[in-house]
Amino acid sequence: MTTHTSLPISIEFFPPKTPEGFEKLRAVRQQLYALKPEFCSVTFGAGGSTQEGTFGTVRAILAEGVPAASHLSCVGASQARVREQLAELRAMGVRRLVALRGDLPSGYGLGGEFAHASDLVAFVRAETGDTFHIEVAAYPEIHPQARSPEADVQALVSKMRAGANSAITQYFYNPDAYFRLLDDLAAQGVTAPVVPGVMPIISSTQLMRFSDACGAEIPRWIRLRLQSFGDDSASIKAFGLDVVTGLCEQLRAGGAPALHFYSMNQSGAVLELCNRLGL
Q: Does residue 1 sit within a domain?
């Protein structure tokens, strides 16, 4: 029997679009709180389009007695706007932010007073001191818009030097990419925690669509296995659990500081993964 070291976890949700979705997510959160997450984060739509839903969901999580982190994106935003959002989050009792450049709503030029996430991090620090623990995004398999792998690592280093406390990665299924990123950061003298983002495999069509959009690689052997299952969702879920459990075991063995689960507003896969991992 191997003894499992306990590992802190955090869980990400997206703001529901309907009252039914809001109620359904409330039930999902109650189930996931059994895992005692260090915090739960809530995403922010393109150009801040879901701000009301994001802040509403953050408020609900805080009211349930769990620390909540709000995503905050700066693309297309003014300093005055971000200053208002920071004041609102602070008043709500939020102490953790995930600071992102974010996606532009389609049809927009770049605009706004922040060109990069590092500008947002520096602004939050200048405005609020150490009020917030700031997380930033990291891309083990290189951001799809990066000019080069070196430029991508440099962008993360800039965010850390601008005042970020830690980073959460885009999901990946190739642990070597994650460990390589840590080596690249260490070579630049950056030793802040980089927490792997973990995406359970629940549906293959959804996973393929997301991965094509965000530049996360699905290794060929995983892609072919998933395709071979066709519409057999039970087999897809069983295989997905095996793959992702194995990935998490490798990350833990390699010294990952925590695990951040992308829940997709569902509880089953995350509960089962943590159960298998002894978390």
A: no
pTM of the entire structure? 0.94
Longest alpha-carbon distance in the chain: 57
In sign, the C-alpha dihedral spanning 171, 177, 178, 182 is negative
The angle that helices 79-92 and 117-128 make with each other, rounded to 10 degrees, is 60
- Measured in whole angstroms, how far is the alpha carbon of residue 200 from the centre of its chain? 13
Region of poorest pLDDT, from 62-76, 98-112, 154-168, 180-194: 98-112
Q: Which residue has the tokens 């070597």?
A: 176
Under the banding of pLDDT at 50, 70 and 90, the label for residue 212 is confident
Q: Catalytic positions, please?
A: 12
Read off the CATH number of the domain in which 136 is found.
3.20.20.220
Q: Which of 38-47, 207-216, 231-240 has the highest mean pLDDT?
A: 231-240
**Total domain count, the chain:** 1
At CB < 8 A and 24+ separation, what contacts does 190-194 make? 190/156, 190/157, 190/160, 190/161, 192/160, 192/164, 192/165, 192/166, 192/167, 193/165, 193/166, 193/167, 193/257, 193/258, 194/138, 194/166, 194/167, 194/168, 194/169, 194/257
